[in-house]
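Key result, reporting period 2: structure in, sequence out.
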């Protein structure tokens, strides 16, 4: 994918130690925060970064949300966009055919007419953010007085419809701090988006799964799109200038983008529950599923063609959450949160403690169910659609269409593993009658049962849909409303910090944010130091044509001698998912790179920012330009950018 008034407490000098933490709402940059950024090296005013009332355009006018799952930026006056290759991965996968594999070979539009339209693609330009807190509170009061039931969805629908009708723009109601603040963000939406170019996946994602979340990395993680308006390239009011001057350790860096989600207002009880109860289940099962799929992808290129997109998504989440558990333990995040919540109301803390203790066992069982039957078998969505179809003819039409996209060998292995975990970890009262009959009939031979179910789609459909969800609900022993307790906790923590004069930023929620910092090295462990940039030398050192993740096209390897600059670099910008593709800017607001990853030591950052360990991994824009100009020869794009 998919809005905090900065209080006067920013003036407190004690904030200096945490200067680089924070995903600040771009429309609410106070003079104190502006000064802090300038002290770090910024050569711009806050109004040059974002100003909805400016007569001209600002930097923020060149930043777009790519469907609220990634970020992109405009880099020419003809609507050319740059983002990460992994943000374009699904598009390249969907466009590929056995004859034209755009993931393997890359894609370059050497002429304007070769730019490929993408169905369902949309980008969003932020035009304005409005504080509507008082209006929402008044609306809630009026609905309550009228006896009309309401919740967050109804409030969002009413407010968004009103502002969309008034402005002609896309409107989104964004809730901050569990309802302490409400903002309406207004966007201009464009839906004619075309693919311009992307390097081969071996170049863009060099190091693949092995290097994910690691440092150093050596990825050319970029792709190019173009926005069209009424059939013509968008005449952009503002685009980012590109700097080829480079940077040094300590150089100012700034990231603007749309981070999707953080949970830094989460309680110690929630973090403890997730990392001790839920994550160990999901991480272990997903790791085994990755092992199954990787085995078949390595054995058969046809399997890789069918499963690479699914595997990419699976591995990214699994590795992130596995690292999250490790970092929460390593950096003592639960104890850190307990210290910060000592002064919160005792009834809230006790309520959370009781509630998480009450749901622990049942939620562990639900995790096993989700990771096996719901998500662990790729055939499950097909079975659910079949069960909802009106007749057998439609059911078999769905089945034949979907099965053609799958590989029976992979699916039977995934089903067998799902059966083993499902029957081994779920209580009997959840298991359906027909499920139990099959379990007994095959006496624990999961491979044989998987083959049987695969060959009998109606039995597989019944198996998937027979889980007794009601059995989960019957055993739940809640002591209170967890959602209400969580909201009360968030608001209490907000007011506690406000009373202490602590600067606050809301959790990320796919709204535009600014983060600032510097280019910096990493010391991941005691006595271990890593540089702040990587070079082509690392590509040559890791290159191994026998390993998929470390193979490169032969002509690319030969061309590497012609590039001597940085490949990737590190900053200490505070980022999260959704920042993928975000522009990394220098002190003058010029583009020096793209954010594409975090480091392994930063994987607890959804819950807590760990000073000196949270890093943003970026691809150097000079490496991107070298690929476009010298390796690909895409002169028309290089000329357009410059």
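The corresponding designed sequence is given below.
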């Amino acid at each position: 994918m998919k809005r905090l008034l900065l209080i006067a407490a920013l003036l407190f000098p004690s904030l200096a130690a945490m200067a680089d933490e924070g995903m600040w709402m771009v429309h609410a940059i106070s003079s104190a925060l502006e000064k802090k950024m300038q002290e770090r090296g910024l050569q711009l005013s806050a109004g040059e970064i974002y100003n909805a009332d400016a007569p001209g355009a600002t930097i923020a006018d060149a930043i777009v949300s790519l469907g609220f799952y990634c970020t992109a930026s405009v880099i020419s006056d003809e609507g050319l966009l740059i983002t990460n290759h992994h943000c374009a991965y699904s598009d390249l996968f969907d466009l590929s055919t056995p004859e034209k594999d755009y993931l393997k070979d890359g894609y370059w539009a050497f002429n304007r007419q070769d730019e490929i339209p993408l169905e369902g693609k949309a980008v969003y330009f932020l035009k304005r953010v409005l504080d509507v807190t008082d209006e929402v509170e008044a609306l809630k009061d009026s609905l309550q007085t009228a006896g009309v039931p309401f919740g967050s969805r109804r409030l969002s629908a009413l407010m968004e419809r009103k502002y969309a009708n008034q402005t002609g723009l896309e409107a989104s109601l964004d809730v901050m701090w569990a309802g302490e603040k409400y903002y309406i963000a207004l966007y201009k939406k464009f839906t004619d988006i075309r693919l311009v170019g992307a390097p081969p996946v071996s170049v863009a994602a060099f190091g693949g799964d092995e290097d994910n979340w690691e440092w150093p990395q050596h990825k050319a993680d970029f792709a190019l799109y173009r926005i069209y308006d009424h059939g013509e390239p968008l005449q952009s009011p503002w685009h980012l200038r590109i700097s080829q001057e480079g940077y040094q350790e300590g150089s100012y860096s700034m990231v603007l983008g749309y981070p999707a989600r953080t949970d830094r207002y989460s309680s110690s009880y929630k973090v403890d529950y997730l990392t001790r109860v839920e994550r160990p289940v999901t991480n272990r099962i997903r790791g085994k599923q990755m092992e199954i799929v990787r085995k078949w992808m390595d054995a058969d290129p046809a399997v890789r063609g069918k499963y690479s997109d699914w595997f990419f998504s699976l591995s990214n989440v699994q590795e992130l959450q596995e690292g999250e558990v490790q970092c929460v333990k390593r950096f003592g995040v639960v104890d850190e949160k307990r210290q910060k919540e000592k002064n919160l109301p005792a009834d809230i803390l006790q309520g959370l403690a009781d509630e998480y203790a009450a749901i622990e066992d049942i939620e562990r069982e639900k995790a096993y169910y989700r990771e096996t039957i719901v998500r662990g078998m790729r055939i499950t969505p097909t079975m659910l659609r079949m069960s909802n179809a009106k007749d057998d003819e439609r059911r078999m039409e769905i089945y034949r269409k979907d099965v053609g996209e799958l590989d029976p060998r992979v699916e039977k292995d995934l089903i067998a593993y799902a059966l083993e975990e499902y029957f081994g970890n779920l209580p009997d009262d959840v298991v359906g009658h027909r499920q139990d009959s099959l379990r007994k009939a095959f006496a624990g031979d999961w491979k044989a049962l998987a083959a049987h179910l695969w060959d009998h789609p109606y039995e597989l459909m019944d198996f998937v849909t027979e889980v007794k969800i009601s059995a989960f609900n019957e055993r739940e022993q809640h002591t209170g409303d967890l959602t209400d307790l969580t909201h009360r906790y968030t608001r209490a923590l907000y007011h506690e910090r406000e009373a202490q004069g602590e600067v606050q930023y809301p959790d990320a929620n796919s709204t535009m944010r600014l983060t600032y910092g510097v280019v910096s090295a990493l010391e991941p462990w005691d006595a271990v130091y890593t540089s702040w940039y990587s070079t082509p030398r690392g590509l040559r050192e890791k290159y191994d044509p026998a390993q998929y993740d470390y193979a490169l096209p032969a002509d690319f390897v030969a061309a590497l001698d012609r590039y001597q600059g940085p490949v990737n670099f590190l900053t200490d910008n505070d980022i999260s998912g959704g920042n993928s593709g975000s522009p990394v800017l220098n002190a003058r607001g010029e583009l020096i790179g793209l954010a594409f990853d975090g480091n392994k030591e930063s994987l607890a950052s959804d819950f807590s920012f760990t000073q000196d360990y949270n890093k943003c991994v970026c691809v150097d824009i000079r490496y991107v330009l070298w690929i476009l100009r010298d390796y690909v020869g895409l002169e028309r794009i290089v000329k357009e950018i410059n």
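Residues 1-19 have pLDDT under 50 and may be disordered. Residues 1-122+191-257+512-642 form a domain with the Thrombin, subunit H fold (CATH 2.40.10.120). This case is discussed further under Risks and Mitigation.
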